[in-house]
Amino acid sequence: MISIWDGIEEYISVVETGSFTAAADQLGASKSFVSKRVSELETRLGVQLLKRTTRQVSMTAIGERFYSACRDMRRSLAAASHEAAQMQKTPTGKLKVSLNDTYDVTFISAVIADFACQYPGVALEVHAGSRDVDLIGEDFDVAIRYGDLTDSSLRAARIGYLSFCLCASPAYLAEHGVPKGIADLKNHICVSDLNSHWWFNSTEGTEKVRVNGRWKSNKGTALKVAAMRGLGMAQLPIAFVRGELAAGNLVSVEDEWSYYDREVWAIFAPGTPVPANLRLLLDFLSKRFARTQLRPWMQTSLTELDIFLSGNARLDAAAED
After folding, report:
1. Using one digit for the tens of pLDDT, what is the confidence trace for 244-280?
2. Which of 238, 235, 162, 231 is nearest to 195 (CA)?
3. Among candidate residues 145, 252, 262, the one with its CA nearest the CA of residue 197
4. Whole-angstrom Cα distance, residue 262 to residue 240?
5. How much is the pTM?
6. Mean pLDDT of 203-215
7. 28, CA 20 to 30 Å: which among 37, 84, 176, 259?
8. Is the dihedral of CA 208, 211, 217, 219 positive or negative?
9. What is the distance between the alpha carbons of residues 274 and 72, in angstroms, rounded to a whole number?
10. How many C-beta atoms surround the C-beta of residue 40 within 10 A?
């Protein structure tokens, strides 16, 4: 298939070097190939661009105007290519982000807000909801999702973990005791999601357990309130209930069997290369998100999380710079 640019690069080279031989050397091709390409270009255009003699090559009047236009187009193409490369290095434009708000979105929102502060050329549009959005159909650049992934047509980058613990009010534990293992949960009242399932770490990955109770909700806030009121045990993200654990309004089960570390993923549409603004956001999320499994007794980590969410971490880092 003939391209509109076929022969033009050879023609420009002949004009600028002054001969077919020099143009061939410059292009790394044979003299006959360069001559053929220029002749085919003249035939395609229906004009004579070059006057050829045994000693020299010169442009016709039409050839001069054509060369000037082609030279300008080549410069514009080079400038456009440079601009595209710079855009890949320096983030600009808009990113549309989807967050799952089943549990508190404070942490992830704080990370994205810090990203916006560091890269003022990027505009952020952040949507929070409990459903999984249609990433491509709804024109989202990235979505934060948890647990197992089902859509293999999308690309995914693991950015960390959302660590869960079992917790209940002091009054509930005083009356019902602390469970000694997963099998003991059948003797406890549980507040759970609408599917009445909890997950736990296991040697095979995860273990799914059905629990019983009279309070269900699809929102973490409702489950936390119910647990604080003594309606049963809850399985909630440690970062989400860190304040209640510190204040003693909730007490966690601190045996290793009781934890669940759910993978956190950044999901984005296929295609290479990844746009500069999205690539930087993925790196930013990965560095800021907890890549280790959080536990209630990790007071240093929880304190650092509180400092970060208050905005002081970013201000302290800026002061150090």
Report:
1. 998 999 999 989 999 999 888 999 988 767 888 888 8
2. 235
3. 262
4. 14
5. 0.65
6. 91
7. 84
8. negative
9. 30
10. 14
